[in-house]
Design brief:
This protein is mainly beta. The protein is built from 1 helix and 6 strands; from the N terminus they run E-E-E-E-E-E-H. It has a single domain, classed as Nucleic acid-binding proteins (OB fold (Dihydrolipoamide Acetyltransferase, E2P), Beta Barrel). Strands 1, 2, 3, 4, 5 and 6 form a 6-stranded antiparallel sheet that branches. Strand 3 and strand 4 form a beta hairpin.
């Protein structure tokens, strides 16, 4: 799958366990510029470096796989989560950007990875 948009925020590498690390990227995406969506994609393991050369405001195309999984809490309730796992990010040239709207005055989004919840990831 692919999404084209503007880099809104680039997260830090998070070492989840000794053998697992991830990094998040927020893309501002809108088919209609009045309704901007902020889409979070993750890079994992050896792919965390694919976000290294990106800049806030840069227009990119992100190729990703859609992953889904269940998680059961202590009370036995099951919740389902989806993750967009990025495997390639391509900066767009001026000719490729022509079809993409420009999003101005986008509010900041916090993807700091706060540990305020008990989710297993």
């Amino acid at each position: 799958m692919e999404i084209k948009g503007i880099v809104h925020e680039i997260g830090n590498i998070i070492q989840v366990t000794d053998s697992f690390k991830k990094r998040e990227l927020v893309i501002a995406y809108a088919e209609n510029p009045q309704f901007v969506e902020y889409i979070t994609v993750q890079a994992m393991q050896d792919r965390v470096s694919i976000f290294d050369n990106l800049k806030i405001g840069q227009q990119v195309s992100v190729d990703f796989n859609l992953k889904g999984r269940p998680w059961t809490n202590k009370e036995g309730q099951t919740t389902y989560f989806n993750t967009l796992v990025a495997w390639r990010v391509t900066p767009l040239t001026n000719t490729q950007q022509a079809s993409q709207p420009v999003y101005n005055d986008m509010p900041p989004v916090d993807i700091s990875g706060s540990d305020d919840d008990d989710l297993p990831f």
